[in-house]
Amino acid sequence: MSAEASPLPLAKPSRSRVEPAPLASIDRFEDLIRRNELGLRQFAYRLLGTREEMEDALQEACLRAFRAAPRFQRRHHASPDAWLYRVLYRTCMDRLRERRRTPLLLTGEAQSSLASSDDAVVTRLDVERALAQLPPQLRAVSVLVDVIGLDYATTAKVVGVRPGTVASRLSRARAELRANLDEDRR
Amino acid sequence: MTAEHDLSRSLASLPTPPLSESFYRHLHAKLASERALPTRGVGSARRRLRRALVFVVVGLACAFTLSAVAAETKRFGPVYWLFDRSEERFPLLQVPTLGEWSSRERVGGLVETETGLRPQVRPIPVLHGDVAGKRWELQAFFETRNGWPTMSRRSAPGHLLCVGLNPGGTPKPYHGTDVPRLGAFSCGQPVHGVQPSRGGESHWVGFGVHVPGPISAAGGGTGPKYLFGTAAPEVRRVDLESNDGTVVSVPTFLGPSDFGVPARFWVSVLRLEHLVHTLVPRDAEGNELERWELPQAQ
User: Fold this and answer.
1) Does this model's pTM top 0.80?
2) B81 interfacial to chain A (CB closer than 8 Å)
3) What is the ipTM of this complex?
């Protein structure tokens, strides 16, 4: 397992309650981004499929979040981490909606980075491909819970549904993942 | 369970490309330029516009709904709004602000001609008043013939004093004539010193009732109610005693100087449900001249 893939510290949003003006300054806002960088990258990359789009989406989401930070501080009392994921989720979904780029295709870059021939890599490629074939909403839930390690309640806040819906989506996502993997192996 | 675990582990181990080195530099520049921009950008202007549109649409929908409901509610009827806007302030009585008598070339009776009925034009003294911003008009005239085409109670031949009330607006003519329609009028009521009795009882005051406004579902007007009439020269006030125990004291005022008859007149505006059962005319000293219990409360 790579060092990147360890469960995210973000998964404890309750620690970082909004304090007075934590996001008002650029430095503090960038700290927030850096603290959540790994999870945000994973989320955006798994949803959009390419590094360029991941970066673009992250930039856009960060700008959106920065603009909305004063309103968030006035109105919300939720975790800023979860809120950041929520903004990124909406940004990615907007991009997917605009480009109609589902299902996701692995790019040449991804293929080449996974081009070694050992079994682990092949399996990882299969999993990536199977994950990319999921519908975006299922993929988002699967990435948030299984890849990033968020709990159901935080995931529900990010995707804007109830925790029960997260559970059912996750169950469907895993079932479809297994089905896709089985199909690939046949 | 193991398969589930393996799948989760496989997902968790998926690699993710790093951010480019310039990512934070670009982000910092964008955030800095964002901070330099005015607080309300294009996006917020669009949001404000969208919000305003939503408010307008919701407002129109509410107004439509309210007006639809109000159409069936007396409280929201036009008369209510014209005269007063709350039960508390709805006038129990408003003594009109009186203007001056003036003579107006209007109609009296109709003259029968070969080509049919024609209005007999003659000067009619008119008094203007004002109630809650709505103009009314009291007309006094002598009727000498039985020519009124739609008079419900035909007066006997002779010189009969008629008093009519127009609650405002432009009177429409009677059908087929150019005779303007009065809201209500009464003619020839026997009043001491004004008009002799025609065999019945004479009183110190005469009266008429008019309820303007659209006809309600119950069959009557929606109010308010005008009580008006003539009075003997001695009468200075008319007390209107009502079913709820209230007494409304209405002053009388002199008729036009060139009228030829020393009649006085009175006008009052009452709430529709305010039923007057007794008229008590009083002289200048406040003495009761009569207690006239009306056969039917008005």
Assistant:
1) no
2) no
3) 0.71
